[in-house]
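Predicting holo structure, UD2 bound.
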Amino acid sequence: MTEMLKTSQTPTVLITGGAGFIGSHTVERLLELDIRVRVLDNLSTGKRSNLDLDHPRLELMEGDVRDRALVKGVMAGVSHVVHLAAQVFTTASVEDPPASASHNIMGFVNVLHTAKEAGVKRFVYASSVAVYGNPAEIPSTEDSPLAPLSPYGLEKRTNEDYAALYGGLFGFASIGLRLSNVYGPRQDPSSPYSGVISQFVRKLWERQPLTLYGSGEQTRDFVYLGDVANTIVTALASDYHGICNVGRGEPISLLQLIDALAEIAGHRPEVLRLPRRAGDILHSVVDPSRLRKTLGVVPAISFKEGLRLLWNATAQVTPG
Ligand code: UD2
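Done. Tokens:
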């Protein structure tokens, strides 16, 4: 698979949002494959320290995906694009829909259009299970009804619609990855709205109580970051055009999460129970069949393995 990417003439992959949590791991994978990587990031949530800036095949360009002239310049010589740059907080999208739409719709269309104009070979972008809203079917397949509950979900759905339109109108093929709940090293736990696993791990290290919203019986399809980075690299080398769920298809409840973390940490955390969050989804699990059939990807890291990898990585940066 990745051979295709390697043998493509002068492969240069542009990764928008490449200094972020998912982006920087994808950058590492590509550099390991001897591919040239250009990162465009406004460093709002991404960090320089996530990247090996001394690497001879890596360039970092600082800027905004909505800046047409900048994106046009950055696209020069690029053969493949991974578009990850986004305003990622669902809550922020509810508080300020125009600002979120500006990043997530205008930014998306600008990168998509510029890539099409530049004749890039492959366009991979991050969509989200947020497009399903409160899932009508469990697990959600790519053909399940879409009913986003937030501007963020609607923005991702609009991205998918634009990508499909560019396929029909201009013959510009792309693949949108509907990411389920991604966790792993470098996920910033500082916002109360960042992923539950990043928050729980930090609190366990600090021996603070975990905050549990609702009964804890809500389930999510947690997928390890390394598997997501591998999926993105595989998607770059595939010629599939359309949408693909990225998850493991295994529902894990928050109570199971707490048990697993307690085992790894070696102590039972105190749990502070708070009412369920408004609009919280009870069960969110995707059907990963298409991921397997079209990309040949089966996320390899089990939930417990992934938690252990995260725990060990956190140990390296957190004094015990
Ligand atoms: C994820 C995405 C969100 C959107 C949504 C679509 C993340 C961080 N968020 O939200 O952007 O795509 O999916 O469905 O990936 N919880 C606690 N304690 C905490 C933090 C969270 O109990 O300290 C609960 C939370 O109420 C929810 C579950 O944990 O029931 C998962 O929360 P989350 O914020 O990690 O992810 P989710 O699925 O709500």
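Residues 90, 128-130, 181, 194-196, 199, 211-213, 218, 220, 254, 277, 280-281, 284 surround UD2 (CB under 6 Å).
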